[in-house]
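$ ./design --mode recover --in tokens.txt
reading tokens...
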């Protein structure tokens, strides 16, 4: 066989293997959104959720958002900052001069992933362990540093029913209660910044389910991993509404962020940690990494050609963009308690809507936000009552299960 024929055969083989991998990757997502019709349903007018004239969009990357931005002197705490969209947010923020404290359950893996990035500190925090959160907060507060931005990015998704040692459903305990407690413990440092932001990573998955107030931990309701995930993400929007209302007088604003559909993130692997074998976790991470390296996200968008922009897959760099925008954009001055997507304030669409964009009314209902807030206080044993008068961490009470 001549060299040209050998080269052509090799290229065709590589293309074939790439196609097999991409097709398998798409099949594993179980995502029918490419066939969804163009959404032409109602948009609900809302004074709070009113989009801005943003020059950024669905395809903007985190790196593009920090071009020309000077974040020197800013201190940022990020959960989940060593993988997926969280890692890309850390890269962007540190490239602009910010100091980032990355909180991770697996410190060794965080050190491996972040070792080439300057201005990063790594601290061990397990969001399922209240004493772990308390230990970090105590150490950080003792340093006397202000906290300018808190990004609650870590999450697990779609796992089988598991409970923590308190009896709480694991996704709600990690995604919601862990971040609720972390935010509470770090409030003195946020106040010290004299102008701070809290960014809670939600998801368009909130459209699947609101908060099941009568059975948050699925003790009687039939469990679904995705329904539990959706509940946790709806809860984070509700907590954002309450946080912003409570803290805006202290110059602290809160935002909920939908990063976009990011199939090559490490979120799928994160949910396996602690329940599946190390081999399965490793394979899930390898699968995601190969998808990133081989630009499978971009290839799938070409093949899928969805009718709705909201169904276009994002790379991890694009998925980090709205987080960075929420954390740094001057466009958001004077705004807070809002749900963001595609580097803008999202529109409101009806509950039950099929729109692949927008926030559902059940996710920012103020009465529901107040009710959830009380539940979280009871489940974590944390009270915020003395916040306005005290520079200390919020008072701890005996927790009770809901």
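writing sequence...
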């Amino acid at each position: 066989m001549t060299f040209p024929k050998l080269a052509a055969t090799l290229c065709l083989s590589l293309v074939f293997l790439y196609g097999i991998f991409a097709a398998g990757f798409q099949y594993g997502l179980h995502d029918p959104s490419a066939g969804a019709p163009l959404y032409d349903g109602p948009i609900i007018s809302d004074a709070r959720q009113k989009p801005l004239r943003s020059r950024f969009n669905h395809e903007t990357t985190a790196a593009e958002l920090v071009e020309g931005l000077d974040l020197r002197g800013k201190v940022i705490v990020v959960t989940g900052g060593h993988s997926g969209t969280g890692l890309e947010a850390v890269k962007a923020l540190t490239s602009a001069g910010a100091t980032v404290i990355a909180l991770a359950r697996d410190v060794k893996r965080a050190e491996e992933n972040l070792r080439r990035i300057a201005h990063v500190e790594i601290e061990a925090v397990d969001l399922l362990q209240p004493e772990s959160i308390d230990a970090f907060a105590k150490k950080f507060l003792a340093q006397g540093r202000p906290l300018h931005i808190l990004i609650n990015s870590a999450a697990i998704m779609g796992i089988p029913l598991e409970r923590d040692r308190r009896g709480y459903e694991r996704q709600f305990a990690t995604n919601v209660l862990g971040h609720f407690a972390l935010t509470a413990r770090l409030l003195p440092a946020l106040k010290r910044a004299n102008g701070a932001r809290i960014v809670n990573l939600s998801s368009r998955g909130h459209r699947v389910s609101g908060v099941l107030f009568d059975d948050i931990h699925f003790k009687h309701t039939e469990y679904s991993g995705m329904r539990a995930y959706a509940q946790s993400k709806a809860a984070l929007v509700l907590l954002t509404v309450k946080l912003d209302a409570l803290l805006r007088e202290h110059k602290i604003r809160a935002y909920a962020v939908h990063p976009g559909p990011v199939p090559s993130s490490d979120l799928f692997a994160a949910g396996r940690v602690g329940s599946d074998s190390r081999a399965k976790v490793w394979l899930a991470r390898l699968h995601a990494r190969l998808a990133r390296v081989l630009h499978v996200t971009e290839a799938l968008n070409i093949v899928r050609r969805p009718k709705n922009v909201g169904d276009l897959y994002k790379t991890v760099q694009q998925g980090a963009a709205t987080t960075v925008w929420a954390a740094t954009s001057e466009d958001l001055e004077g705004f807070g308690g809002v749900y963001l997507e595609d580097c803008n304030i999202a529109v409101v669409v009806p509950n039950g809507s099929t729109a692949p964009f927008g926030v559902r009314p059940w996710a920012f209902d103020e009465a529901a936000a107040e009710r959830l807030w009380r539940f979280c206080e009871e489940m974590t044993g944390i009270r915020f009552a003395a916040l306005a008068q005290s520079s200390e961490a919020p008072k701890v009470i005996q927790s009770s299960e809901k």
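exit 0
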